[in-house]
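Pipeline run #58 for the internal structure catalog. This entry was flagged by the ingest filter as a single-chain record with no existing model, so it goes straight to prediction. Upstream metadata was stripped on purpose; only the residue string is passed forward. Reviewer on rotation: M.T. Logging verbosity set to normal.
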Amino acid sequence: MTRLLLTCYNYECQLFRKINRYFKNKYMNCFFSMITNLGGALFTISAVLFLILITSSQTRITALASAAALALSHVPVFFCKRFFPRQRPYIKLEKTMFPEKPLRDHSFPSGHTTAIFSVIIPFVLFLPILSTILIPIGIFVGISRIYLGLHYPSDVIVGMVIGCVGGSLCFYFI
Protein backbone atom coordinates (compact mmCIF):
# COMPACT_ATOMS: atom_id res chain seq x y z
CA MET A 1 0.00 0.00 0.00
CA THR A 2 2.81 2.41 0.89
CA ARG A 3 4.49 1.64 -2.41
CA LEU A 4 1.29 2.39 -4.33
CA LEU A 5 0.88 5.72 -2.53
CA LEU A 6 4.50 6.63 -3.24
CA THR A 7 4.05 5.76 -6.92
CA CYS A 8 0.91 7.90 -7.10
CA TYR A 9 2.67 10.78 -5.35
CA ASN A 10 5.65 10.58 -7.72
CA TYR A 11 3.33 10.60 -10.74
CA GLU A 12 1.45 13.54 -9.28
CA CYS A 13 4.70 15.48 -8.76
CA GLN A 14 5.69 14.80 -12.38
CA LEU A 15 2.33 16.11 -13.60
CA PHE A 16 2.63 19.11 -11.30
CA ARG A 17 6.08 19.95 -12.72
CA LYS A 18 4.85 19.59 -16.32
CA ILE A 19 2.22 22.25 -15.66
CA ASN A 20 4.29 24.52 -13.38
CA ARG A 21 7.32 24.60 -15.72
CA TYR A 22 5.61 27.18 -17.95
CA PHE A 23 5.41 29.70 -15.10
CA LYS A 24 7.85 32.10 -16.77
CA ASN A 25 5.66 32.52 -19.86
CA LYS A 26 4.29 36.07 -19.50
CA TYR A 27 1.09 35.38 -21.49
CA MET A 28 0.26 32.25 -19.51
CA ASN A 29 1.06 34.09 -16.28
CA CYS A 30 -1.35 36.84 -17.21
CA PHE A 31 -4.08 34.36 -18.16
CA PHE A 32 -3.74 32.05 -15.16
CA SER A 33 -3.22 34.90 -12.68
CA MET A 34 -6.51 36.40 -13.84
CA ILE A 35 -8.55 33.21 -14.16
CA THR A 36 -7.51 31.89 -10.74
CA ASN A 37 -9.42 34.82 -9.20
CA LEU A 38 -12.68 33.41 -10.61
CA GLY A 39 -12.44 30.76 -7.90
CA GLY A 40 -11.64 33.24 -5.15
CA ALA A 41 -14.05 34.30 -2.43
CA LEU A 42 -14.48 37.85 -3.73
CA PHE A 43 -15.60 36.78 -7.20
CA THR A 44 -17.70 33.73 -6.30
CA ILE A 45 -19.59 35.43 -3.48
CA SER A 46 -20.10 38.62 -5.49
CA ALA A 47 -21.27 36.70 -8.56
CA VAL A 48 -23.91 34.65 -6.75
CA LEU A 49 -25.17 37.65 -4.75
CA PHE A 50 -25.38 39.70 -7.95
CA LEU A 51 -27.36 36.95 -9.68
CA ILE A 52 -29.68 36.56 -6.70
CA LEU A 53 -30.40 40.29 -6.75
CA ILE A 54 -30.87 40.88 -10.50
CA THR A 55 -32.57 37.69 -11.68
CA SER A 56 -35.99 36.22 -11.07
CA SER A 57 -37.85 32.91 -11.02
CA GLN A 58 -35.84 29.77 -11.79
CA THR A 59 -32.59 31.64 -12.43
CA ARG A 60 -32.79 33.20 -8.96
CA ILE A 61 -33.49 29.79 -7.42
CA THR A 62 -30.45 28.41 -9.27
CA ALA A 63 -28.36 31.31 -7.95
CA LEU A 64 -29.62 30.51 -4.43
CA ALA A 65 -28.57 26.88 -4.97
CA SER A 66 -25.13 28.13 -6.03
CA ALA A 67 -24.86 30.28 -2.92
CA ALA A 68 -25.87 27.37 -0.69
CA ALA A 69 -23.43 25.07 -2.49
CA LEU A 70 -20.64 27.60 -2.11
CA ALA A 71 -21.24 27.82 1.64
CA LEU A 72 -21.84 24.12 2.24
CA SER A 73 -18.98 22.86 0.09
CA HIS A 74 -16.46 24.69 2.21
CA VAL A 75 -17.36 22.68 5.30
CA PRO A 76 -15.55 19.55 4.02
CA VAL A 77 -12.74 21.78 2.69
CA PHE A 78 -12.31 23.27 6.16
CA PHE A 79 -12.14 19.85 7.82
CA CYS A 80 -9.89 18.31 5.18
CA LYS A 81 -7.39 21.15 5.57
CA ARG A 82 -7.39 20.55 9.35
CA PHE A 83 -7.18 16.74 9.31
CA PHE A 84 -4.92 16.36 6.24
CA PRO A 85 -2.38 19.17 6.68
CA ARG A 86 -0.60 18.82 3.34
CA GLN A 87 2.11 21.35 2.62
CA ARG A 88 1.76 23.33 -0.58
CA PRO A 89 3.96 22.20 -3.48
CA TYR A 90 6.00 25.40 -3.55
CA ILE A 91 7.10 24.60 0.01
CA LYS A 92 7.71 20.90 -0.52
CA LEU A 93 9.06 20.60 -4.06
CA GLU A 94 12.35 22.15 -5.11
CA LYS A 95 12.43 24.46 -8.11
CA THR A 96 8.70 25.16 -7.96
CA MET A 97 7.83 28.56 -9.38
CA PHE A 98 5.14 30.55 -7.59
CA PRO A 99 3.80 34.11 -7.18
CA GLU A 100 5.31 36.65 -4.80
CA LYS A 101 2.79 36.35 -1.97
CA PRO A 102 1.63 32.74 -1.99
CA LEU A 103 -0.96 31.26 0.34
CA ARG A 104 0.37 29.82 3.59
CA ASP A 105 -2.45 27.50 4.68
CA HIS A 106 -2.67 23.83 3.78
CA SER A 107 -2.96 22.60 0.23
CA PHE A 108 -5.56 19.81 0.36
CA PRO A 109 -8.14 20.29 -1.14
CA SER A 110 -8.19 23.33 -3.43
CA GLY A 111 -10.69 25.85 -2.09
CA HIS A 112 -10.69 27.88 -5.32
CA THR A 113 -11.54 24.80 -7.39
CA THR A 114 -14.21 23.76 -4.90
CA ALA A 115 -15.72 27.24 -5.02
CA ILE A 116 -15.90 27.61 -8.78
CA PHE A 117 -17.42 24.15 -9.30
CA SER A 118 -19.94 24.58 -6.48
CA VAL A 119 -21.10 27.82 -8.14
CA ILE A 120 -21.19 26.64 -11.76
CA ILE A 121 -22.72 23.16 -11.37
CA PRO A 122 -26.23 24.37 -10.45
CA PHE A 123 -26.21 26.55 -13.58
CA VAL A 124 -24.95 23.67 -15.73
CA LEU A 125 -27.75 21.48 -14.38
CA PHE A 126 -30.34 24.24 -14.89
CA LEU A 127 -29.23 25.06 -18.44
CA PRO A 128 -26.91 22.32 -19.81
CA ILE A 129 -25.80 24.41 -22.81
CA LEU A 130 -23.87 26.57 -20.32
CA SER A 131 -21.55 23.61 -19.72
CA THR A 132 -19.66 24.48 -22.91
CA ILE A 133 -18.56 27.73 -21.26
CA LEU A 134 -18.69 27.07 -17.52
CA ILE A 135 -16.96 23.67 -17.30
CA PRO A 136 -13.85 24.89 -19.19
CA ILE A 137 -13.74 27.94 -16.90
CA GLY A 138 -13.82 25.65 -13.86
CA ILE A 139 -11.11 23.43 -15.33
CA PHE A 140 -8.92 26.44 -16.09
CA VAL A 141 -9.32 27.67 -12.50
CA GLY A 142 -8.15 24.24 -11.30
CA ILE A 143 -5.19 24.20 -13.71
CA SER A 144 -4.29 27.72 -12.60
CA ARG A 145 -3.87 26.51 -9.03
CA ILE A 146 -1.31 23.94 -10.20
CA TYR A 147 0.33 26.35 -12.65
CA LEU A 148 0.81 28.91 -9.88
CA GLY A 149 2.55 26.30 -7.68
CA LEU A 150 -0.14 26.37 -5.02
CA HIS A 151 -1.76 22.93 -5.40
CA TYR A 152 -1.03 19.39 -6.43
CA PRO A 153 -3.28 17.84 -9.09
CA SER A 154 -5.05 15.68 -6.47
CA ASP A 155 -5.91 18.83 -4.46
CA VAL A 156 -7.64 20.20 -7.55
CA ILE A 157 -9.41 16.93 -8.40
CA VAL A 158 -10.78 16.55 -4.87
CA GLY A 159 -11.84 20.21 -4.87
CA MET A 160 -13.64 19.63 -8.16
CA VAL A 161 -15.43 16.56 -6.76
CA ILE A 162 -16.49 18.39 -3.58
CA GLY A 163 -17.74 21.36 -5.61
CA CYS A 164 -19.65 19.14 -8.07
CA VAL A 165 -21.27 17.09 -5.32
CA GLY A 166 -22.19 20.20 -3.32
CA GLY A 167 -23.52 22.01 -6.39
CA SER A 168 -25.56 19.00 -7.50
CA LEU A 169 -27.07 18.37 -4.07
CA CYS A 170 -28.03 22.00 -3.58
CA PHE A 171 -29.53 22.21 -7.07
CA TYR A 172 -31.73 19.18 -6.53
CA PHE A 173 -32.79 20.08 -2.98
CA ILE A 174 -33.46 23.81 -3.46
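catalog note: The radius of gyration is 17 Å.
catalog note: DSSP finds eight helices and no strands in the chain.
status: ready for reviewer M.T.
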